[in-house]
# Entry
Amino acid sequence: MLRNLFTKTIRDNRKSSLGWILGAGVLSLWLVAMYPFIRDSEEMKDLIEQMPAELMAAFGIDAATFLTGAGYLSAQLYSFVGPIIVIGFAVTLGTAVTASEEKSGTLEVLLSAPISRSHVVVSKLAASVFLLALVPVAMTTVILAANRPLGLELSIQGILAVNIGLWLLGTVFVAVAVAAGAFTGNPGTARGVAFFAAVLSWFVSFFEPLFDWLELPSKVSPFTWYIGENPMLEQWSSGFAWLALTAVGLAIGGVWLFSRRDIATELTVLPKSPLTRRRSKHVEPRATHLLGSVLGKTLWDRRKTVFLWAAGIASLLLMTFAAWPAMSGNSAALEALIGSMPTEMFAIFGVTDPEALATPAGLVSSRAYLNIGPLIMIIFSVGGVSALLAKEETSGVLDMVLSNPKPRRGVLIQKILGLAVLTIVITLILIAVGFVGDALWDTGLEPMHIVGANVGLMLLGMFFGGMTLALWSILGSGGAAVGVTSAFAVVSYFLNGLATVVDPIAPFRLISPFFWFLGDTVPLAKGIEPAYALLFLGAVAGAWIATWRFDKRDLAV
# Structure
């Protein structure tokens, strides 16, 4: 496996890839299992007939086909959940091609071997594209297995086409991350550029029916090339060729940029400007005051990406706010639909009070605070712990930091505080966006309820961040800590919902962090709850355990 870079890259990413693959397969299975309930619902048919087509298009729903297997999966799996998983994995892989190794200092060692820079990038990029393909393969396997038993009535050609399209979409963003990383050498910037491009592309494609001025930009959006013509029905879309050409073009650009840049400096292939040449060597860079402490350095290193994470949740929040006026105009149909659905179906997705979905607080909470919002906040917190501590320990950077005359305990505490400050920044942005959405679409939400929902979301993320910290300090492995935390998050999420309909497990609901956050009332219908204190105490306990263990643990083992 270690004879060439292609197989070594696969080996190095085998564990994390398995997590993405299994996650995609399980989520596909859950969504597919819900299809018979949707298909057989008369209330769903009535609701679709009454909803404006433009609004449904913004959610990836085609009213003419939604109740078919192709239309349902296109809207629920391939327009939303699938792209989130594939693009998240793609950006992780693309960033690791050059930028992550350059920041950790291992890239110089690799380039000292008798191989060309172009060979390094091409080999690692090819391995990344191969690993990315395994996620759609898992989804394809699940859908093929469920096609006949659940009456999806999909053609094999259509199933293959949509998953190949999803893979090509992810490949584009692998290439974006590679090009940005090759140009800047900064993994944070590479991730930020790639995620921003993905969010922008998604917005342009799905909001084009609502805004005329997006018609032209949508024609050059990767999401339009991917899902503009439903691949499950049209099968092989002409947009696939554009996705492939774009990915190849970006990859070639990344190889060229990396082959011409001095990785020992922060200079890119662009020449120095006259302004740069005239600048005095004694002029201190911007925000030098932030670099005088571990806390300040932590904030400075993640200053760009924090706003991109906030933008992701904020855009989801605003989109859900925008849907309320149309939904409220058909409240009777919406209430009838909710009443016809099995309680178990709502519970699986974290909705323990389905009737609340017919209110603005319930509808807006449904995406931003019940599932996708917590997912993004937990990934931010757990990923932050992994990047700021576990990966720095693995790469040896942490040893260099600790060689300074600073106590171990102080270094760790400042890094933890830095991550907490960044999480608070995201929370303040979301509170501001909540006030804006409430004012624009007149949802009538209480200000303290908006504040409470976002404070609870913040504390939920901090709880799992604290858990990751404690496990890292005990197990000595960042990968193991992230894996155990992720597994516990998934189990506790479904425990909270299913415990409301499965009596034998009902008592165990009390130990779920999601129960402490959600309870039986949607977040936007309540303020700051006493149960939030449990989330806060859990986060503090995890940080305390990590600090105590870190002060005693030998980093060499």
